[in-house]
Amino acid sequence: MTPYVGGMKKIAATTAIATAVTLSSPTWAQDQDGPSLMRKGVELFFQGLQTELEPAITEMQKFVDELTPELRRFAESMGPALADMMNQVEDWSVYEAPEMLPNGDIIIRRKPPTDSVEDNEDGTEL
After folding, report:
1. Is residue 107 within 8 Å of 99, Cβ to Cβ?
2. What is the pTM of this model?
3. CB of 120 within 8 A of CB of 126?
4. Which pLDDT tens digit goes with each residue over 38-97?
């Protein structure tokens, strides 16, 4: 699932919970004559919001459904190679960020070594 769809679902869930809590509180209770104008307004607002967001959520779900098989194939084909690389590298902090060359190759350069121990003029450690 993409972060966008996940975020949309969190917003929708939070909104639904907030609406349910607000509308069930005593200050929003129905009058003897029916729902208050404020309650009707809130209900109409959230119905409109749901109507506006529904096409976007549907499109995002289609996108996720199309992308899922491709991601699964990538994980199946590259997973073993990535796991092997992860096992061979002991400390990722000694490498630069990956770089793509003009020919499409990706390289990960080792950072230049830093001298963490200072030496005296005669070559002995301080």
Report:
1. yes
2. 0.33
3. yes
4. 888 888 888 888 888 888 888 988 988 888 888 888 888 888 888 888 888 888 888 899
Distance CA 36, CA 65 (A): 42
User: What is the C-alpha separation between 89 and 44, in angstroms, rounded?
Assistant: 57
User: Would you report the helix, strand and coil content of the chain in percent, each value rounded to 5?
Assistant: 65, 10, 30
Conformation bin of residue 113: beta by default, left when phi > 0, alpha when psi is -120 to 50: beta
Q: Rounded CA gap, 72 and 64, in Å?
A: 12
Residue 23, pLDDT score: 60
Residue 99 predicted with pLDDT over 90: yes
Q: How far is 23 from 21, CA to CA, in rounded Å? A: 6
| DSSP string across 56-100 | HHHHHHHHHHHHHHHHHHHHHHHHHHHHHHHHH-S-GGGBPPPEE
First to last CA, the chain: 54
